[in-house]
Amino acid sequence: MLWLIRRGSAEQLGSYVFWANSALVAGTLAAAFTSVHLYRLPPAPSPGRRRAERVLLSGNLLLALLMGLLTLLVVPWLGATLGLWIAALFLPCTILALHARVLATTHGALGAAAAISAAPLLAVGCGMGAELVLGRTPSVPLLLALNGLAQGVAGAIVIRRLGGPWPMDFGAGARRRWRALARRSRWSLAAGLGNEVFTRLYIFVVPAWFGAAALAGLAAAQAMLRPATLLAGAFGAAARRPLARLRHEGDAAGFWRLLTIGALGPACATLLLGGVVAALWPWIAAWVFGGRYAGLEKLVLLWSVVMAISCFWVAGLAGLQVLGRLRALAMAEIGGALVCALAMAPMLLLLDAPGALLAIALGGVVQVTLLASGVRRGLRDLAPNLVPAAGAR
């Protein structure tokens, strides 16, 4: 994204942001039916776990193929800026990589999960380097192609290594389990849809209201805060296996303590980073962004607040998924999405594009409150005498 911010047009940046977020939306929908169920499996290896993994992977592959075909149907209707055919490859590869990352984290193979994230960074970096050497302007189709292929190859390698010589199952038994999973996935699907409305509504509303340049400004203000998301993401990836162990051991106090530390630490680091980036923004705009996107200090601070709140969301999400409280998770996601959606238009009218971030923050506070309540109820059912009282630290 930094390459497009510095050398690309606002339309190119908007196009990349659109497809990157579309891939994540597709990944969320696919995960609601497949990947999310990996978190509920016992952490210890067993033949039963292996069979469940094969069924879930096969379902994920079918959904990835369906998303690719759907993209081919939609692209001709999106116009010249957004109608990129390579997206039909980018979306399925992203879905596969997201599933592989979840599989790796549930196996405790954090190095493999990190490799799936590092592969597209390396591939895209090489592509940008080649464009720079050749003196060419950025190409969004090239970036999407490199990103998608790197994710797909890395994800396939990890799945093959962790899943054995034939990690898929398309037999009659697998199809029966797909139908059962579809019935059980209604709450995880509702949660996924609610979260996508909450986190990505502005991606579509802001450019429709103010144009692509406004979305580009929001993306540029967030770009230097991206390292903060890695902290929360790392906790979410690393904590699920220990949380599953604590759940199976009935250690509610340890479960709650791990979630609290995993939320507060990244949140404080995010706010600190936001303050530093805002203070250094004139230098960042002049030197890192090539003289573009000056005067975004307030947007940076707003983003840091939004992203700090999201650290608590990551912790609550991990906790409820491991506890298997998918209905409580769905209610929290839907509650946050409704508040965000209802607040979006008034905030945009009052504050223009930055108002979108305030709407997201309001929805995030509601969301996190409901997540914490769901985790507390889940732990009370797990071990009533070990759950800390409300307000206790």
UniProtKB/TrEMBL annotation:
The chain crosses the membrane at residues 16-39, 60-78, 84-103, 110-134, 140-159, 201-221, 255-281, 301-323, 330-350, 356-375. The keyword Membrane applies. It comes from the Bacteria. The keyword Chloroplast does not apply. Keywords: Membrane, Transmembrane, Transmembrane helix. This is Polysaccharide biosynthesis protein.
